[in-house]
C-alpha cells in the first residue's frame, strides 16, 4: 500500500483521532472493499476527471499489493478533450488496469452530437443511454462513481450505496436507510447499486489530497494558452475541427484552465494563470464561482440534476 | 484562513496545506422540527463560513421567489432542502448531508427531519454523528419532540449535545426565558448519559451567536455555536479499547502473500501482538501491518489496513480478528434495541438477514420484551413493531457471531435487518448484551443420527410442503399420496391444520404475527419428523413466501419439496368444503386467506399443480413421478 512521495504521516497525531483526510480516505477504502467483497461483477466508472483520479488512487490503496479486482469503464461520447483520452490510456497502462471503453454506436450512427443536437439530447443519448447500454451489456451489478454530496443539492441526499431498478432508475423518495458503516448491497437479478466512495469529500478535500499524495491529473486543469471561443458567456475550447466557427466567432488564444472536465463543447474554461497545484488550490480558496457552473448541463433548472439522476445519469 | 492575496507563493500554499494535516473532522446532527429553523441554521453556518459561492447564491435568489417563505429576504433553508418534493412541501423529509470547514475543523452535518414519522431518518443521521444540535423555538420552549430527539440521540450513542435555543429575537433576546428553558432541559437530561451539554441562545435568521456574538445579548458570555463546535472534544477514546478488526476481504495476490483487509473497529494493533479469530478461537501474532501510508508498526481505530499474520490460520470475510487478551462475545442470541424502518411490521419468528460488521446471517426476533413510547419513554407490551417504533427485543441467529455491546462499540455493536424478499433495509439494532444461555447450550452429539435412522427405515426422508388456498385440494391430495406411499412400504406422517392447530398451535389465531409463528412451529416439527427418518407431508395454507422460505432453510438441499396446489379462488369458493368462504364473505370470519388476508403464490415451487379439470389420482401420480425422478422413493 506504500505510495511514493506521500507527504502525509500519521505519526505525531493526537492519539485516537484520525485527521480529516485520513478519515475520509479510510471511509472510502472501506466502501470500495465492501463493494468488491459483496458484488459478483462490479466496475469502476472512470470519467478521467480529478475525482476519478482520486477514486482510482483510493482503489489501488484498498487492494494493494493485489491488482484491482474489477475493470475500469469509460463511457466515451467521442467529444471528450483529446488530452483526456491520452491521459486515460496512459493511466490504464501505468497501473495495469483492465479498461473498457463504451460508446453508444446507435447514437454515432444517428450523428448525435452537442453542436447538432444540443447539450440535453447529446448528454441523454451519449452519456445516460450509453451508460445503461454498457451496464446491461457486461451485466455489472455494481458501479463505482466519483460523485460527491457537496457538488449539488440532490446529491446531498443520495446514499453511498444507491439502489437502481432494473431500468437503472433512482427513486429519491424510496431510498434504503443507511446507518453506521453497514451498507446494504442486496439486490435482485437485473438490479444494481451505484456506489459513491467520495460522498463525504468536498472539492477542497480532493485538491488537498491530490497535492499531498502527488496524484496525477489531466493537464487541462493547469493554465495554458489555449484557443477558445466565447459562447453564452462561457469560454469553449476549440479542441478539434468539429467545432463550428461562425462568421461572428473569434478564436482567441487565452491563458485558461478547466475546473471540471467533460465534453469539450459543453465545458467552459476559466481565465487563470494557475499552472501549478498550489496555485490551483489558492485559486480555489478564493473562488467566486462554484465548480459545476462550468457545465452547461446544470443550467436549465436547479432541479435538473435530480431529474437526470432519476433517469439513470450518474 | 490562508491570505487570499494572489501573490502568495506556491511554497506558502503548500505549507498552508501541510499545516492543515492535523485538522480533524466533526460529524454532527441537527434535529428539530421545520418550524424551529433547523435548515435556516445550517444555511446560516454555510453562509457565514463563506462556503456559499456566488453563483449558488444567485440560484438561491431565483429559487426564493418561487418557493420562499420569508418574503424578500433570502431563505437560507432552501440551501439545504434538496429534493424537489421537499422544496414544494416546505419540510425536510430525508437526511441531507452538508459540509463546511474552518481552519480548525471540517464539519459534516446531517440535517434530519423532526416529526415523529421521521424517527428512522433521525436515527440514520445520528448513527454516524458524534454530537447533536437540538433546536428549540424560544417561544415554545421544550416540546415533546425535544425530549424525543434527546432520547433518540442518546439511544444511538451520542454523548455530546448542544441545546440551541433559537428565535431568541422573537422573545426580545430574553435572558430569563433562555435560563428557564435551559434549566428545564438540564433537569430532564439528567437521565441520559451526555458528557457535554451546552445551551446557546441564538437567532439563525439574523446570525446572533451562530458564528459571531452580535450586539443583542450582552448577558450571554458563553461560546457561539461555531466556537463550541470547533473546540468541543468528542474523542471517543476508541483507540484505548480492545482491538477489533472485522475482516472485509482476503488479500491474496499470490501464494507468498495472504493478508486480511478491513477497517479497525476499535483499539490499536502493533506488530507482534497476539490476536485471535473470535469465532474459531485460533490465535496467531501480527507479522505485518499495511496502513494507508505504507507499512507501519502499529495502527489504530478508524484506519483501513491489511494485516498479515505469522501463521496460516483460517479466516475470511465476516470473521472478527481481535485482541487475544480481551475477546468479544461470540453468541447466537442477544438482546438489543431495535428501530423499525419499514411499512411492513416486524413479525417475531419471521426470518430476516442481519448484517453486523462484515457478516451477514439469517436471524429472527424471538421475543419483543417491550416497545418504548418515544414521547413518554414508557414501556409498552407488544407483539409486533410498526414503522418508526423502538423496542427492546431478543434475537436468535442461525450461526454465532462476534460482537460487543453497543455501549462499548458503535461499530461492533450495531446491525441492520434486511427483508429477505424485497432486500430493503427494514430495521436497525444496537446490541445490549449476549444472552448467556446461547453460550451455554451445546447440541448433544447424538450417536444415532438421521442417516442411521433413515437407513434402518430403508428410505430417504424429506418434507413435502403443500401450499395453496383453503379448499384448493391440498389435504385431499396429501391424504391420497400418503396412502399410495404407505402401500409402497414408505414410512410417512402428515401434518395438517387439524392435527396441529387443535393441539400444539391451539394458542394461535389468524393474525399475520400468529400465522408466522404457526408456520415456524410446523416447520420445526416437520424437521424433527424428517430427522426421525420419515417422509413428512405438510398440508398448510402457509400464505407468506417469507415463512415458506424459512421452512425450506431448515432442510438440506433437495429434501424440501414445495408443492403448489394451484386452484383459482372462484373454484375454491364454489367448492367451499367447510363453509368457510361463506362465513368469511359474510364477515363472520376475519383474516381469511384470499378474502381479507393475502396469499403470496410460490415463485419457484418444485411442483406447480394446476388442479382445474384434473382428478386427484392423476395429480398424485405426477408427484410420485417427481419423487422417483429425484431418487427420493
Summarize this entry quickly.
With 314 residues, chain A is α/β, with parallel strands linked by helices.
What characterizes the major β-sheet of chain A?
Answer: 6 strands, mixed
Number of structural domains of chain B: 4
Radius of gyration computed on alpha carbons of chain B: 31 Å
Greatest contact pair? A-B, 78 and 91 residues
Percent range of helical residues of chain A: 25-40%
Query: What proportion strand of chain A?
Result: 5-15%
Mean pLDDT of chain A: 87
Gyration radius of chain A, in Å:
19 Å
In spatial order, strands of the major sheet of chain A run 3-2-1-4-6-5
How many strands, which pairing sense, and closed or not: the largest β-sheet of chain B? 8 strands, antiparallel
- Unreliably modeled segments of chain A: 1-16, 297-302
Total strands of chain B: the figure is: 28
Give the end-to-end Cα distance of chain B, rounded to a whole number of Å: 81 Å
Range of strand content of chain B: 25-35%
Shape of chain B: globular
User: Into which percent range does the helicity of residues of chain B fall?
Assistant: 25-40%
Q: Decide which structural class fits the backbone of chain A.
A: alpha/beta
Overall description:
The complex is a heterodimer of chains A (314) and B (633). Chain A has 314 residues and is an alpha/beta fold. Chain A has helices at residues 20-38, 50-63, 82-95, 105-109, 114-138, 203-213, 277-285, 304-310; strands spanning 42-45, 72-75, 99-102, 142-144, 161-164, 192-195, 224-231, 234-237, 252-257, 268-271. In chain A, the strands form 2 sheets. Chain A has a 6-stranded mixed β-sheet. The longest helix of chain A is centred in the middle third of the chain and has 25 residues, at 114-138. Mean pLDDT of chain A is 87; it is low at 1-16 and 297-302. By secondary structure, chain B is an alpha/beta fold. Chain B folds into 4 domains: 12-231, P-loop containing nucleotide triphosphate hydrolases (Rossmann fold, 3-Layer(aba) Sandwich); 238-323, Translation factors (Elongation Factor Tu (Ef-tu), domain 3, Beta Barrel), CATH 2.40.30; 330-434, Beta Barrel (Elongation Factor Tu (Ef-tu), domain 3), CATH 2.40.30; 450-629, Rossmann fold. Helices cover 27% and strands 28% of the residues of chain B. In chain B, the strands form 5 sheets. In chain B, strands 7, 8, 9, 11, 12, 13, 15 and 16 form an 8-stranded antiparallel β-sheet that branches. Chain B has a 6-stranded mixed β-sheet with strand order 2-3-1-4-5-6, with helices on both faces. Chain B has a 6-stranded antiparallel beta barrel with strand order 17-21-19-18-22-23. In chain B, strand 18 (351-356) and strand 19 form a beta hairpin. In chain B, helix 11 (474-487) crosses helix 17 (616-629) and helix 13 (512-531) packs parallel to helix 14.
